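User: Let's play a game. I give you a shape written as tokens, and you guess the letters that built it. Ready? Here's round one.
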């Protein structure tokens, strides 16, 4: 535990030396790589794992993000990229799928990812324009590509094992979406979380369920990872899972107090600036507090039966 703390402290110190980790390849373990995406371009983090015969990639990213990371993968291995995994259906994790498929990869995801796509990507599935069409208006990289849903699906878990290396894809419950799955390396004790866990003010609650999410983070903690690689922000240790879970618990607790106090939607909304200040005073969760708490606060409030905030 002590060595872990020292490792984390060193990591944090290294990161504060100018965010130099963004868009650089980090070797997490032999044959296991992490690439922190540039959030200013909307990019998610990526990971990749080199098996005996192929490379397994974590996250398709946006098309522009895929183009950043593909040549870097080639610098680490010349084996074919055979699988690209979507941790969930959001554009910054899945809209690059077509590029990976064109490069020879099969797109893998939990069945919940496809179910979420059927709801969000109505344009692809024969209905009115959906999220992809909305994203394409603002992103040339999306407009120049096309949506490619995953084709290799699993209900709860799917394992890759070549006798030397083992990677377990695990759906542990509803979290950031209904479809989030984790990538667990039991030998190396490395956990890639997608956006079920982030490191920084990057949480989007709109497609999630915070009460279920807290339980899913608990299930992830039970794997006892030593390194946790989030969907956005720098990598860390198991404290990432604990801190994000703690943030949600404290956020819920404060909204609950406002509900129990009989506050109106407008009053709850008005109280959120003070809630944010209060949450920022808790050292291990301060980094999770976004610039505006309105969207997160409203979602948590609505999960407790509250109504939409007035505009
Ligand atoms: Zn997401």
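Assistant: Ready! My guess for every position:
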């Amino acid at each position: 535990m002590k060595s872990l703390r020292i490792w984390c402290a060193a990591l944090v110190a290294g990161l504060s030396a100018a965010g130099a980790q963004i868009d650089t390849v980090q070797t997490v373990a032999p044959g296991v790589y992490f690439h922190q995406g540039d959030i200013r371009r909307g990019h998610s983090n990526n990971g990749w794992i080199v098996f005996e015969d192929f490379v397994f990639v974590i996250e398709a990213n946006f098309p522009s993000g895929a183009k950043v990371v593909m040549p870097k993968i080639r610098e680490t291995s010349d084996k074919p990229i055979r699988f690209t995994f979507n941790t969930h259906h959001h554009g910054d994790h899945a809209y690059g799928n077509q590029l990976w498929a064109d490069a020879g990869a099969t797109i893998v995801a939990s069945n919940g990812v496809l179910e979420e796509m059927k709801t969000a990507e109505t344009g692809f599935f024969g209905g009115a324009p959906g999220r992809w069409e909305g994203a394409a208006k603002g992103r040339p990289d999306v407009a120049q590509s096309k949506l490619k849903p995953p084709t290799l699906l699993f209900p709860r878990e799917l394992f890759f094992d070549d006798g030397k290396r083992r990677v377990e894809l695990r759906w542990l419950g509803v979290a950031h979406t209904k479809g989030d799955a984790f990538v667990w390396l039991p030998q190396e004790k490395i956990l890639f979380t997608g956006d079920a866990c982030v490191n920084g003010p990057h949480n989007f609650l709109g497609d999630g369920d915070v009460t279920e999410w807290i339980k899913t983070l608990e299930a992830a903690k039970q794997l006892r990872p030593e390194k946790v690689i989030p969907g956005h922000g720098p990598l860390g240790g198991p404290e990432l899972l604990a801190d994000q879970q703690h943030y949600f618990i404290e956020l819920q607790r404060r909204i609950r107090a406002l509900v129990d106090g009989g506050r109106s939607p407008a009053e709850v909304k008005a109280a959120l600036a003070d809630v944010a200040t209060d949450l920022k005073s808790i050292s291990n969760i301060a980094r999770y507090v976004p610039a505006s708490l309105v969207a997160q606060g409203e979602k948590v409030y609505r999960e407790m039966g509250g109504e939409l905030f007035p505009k």
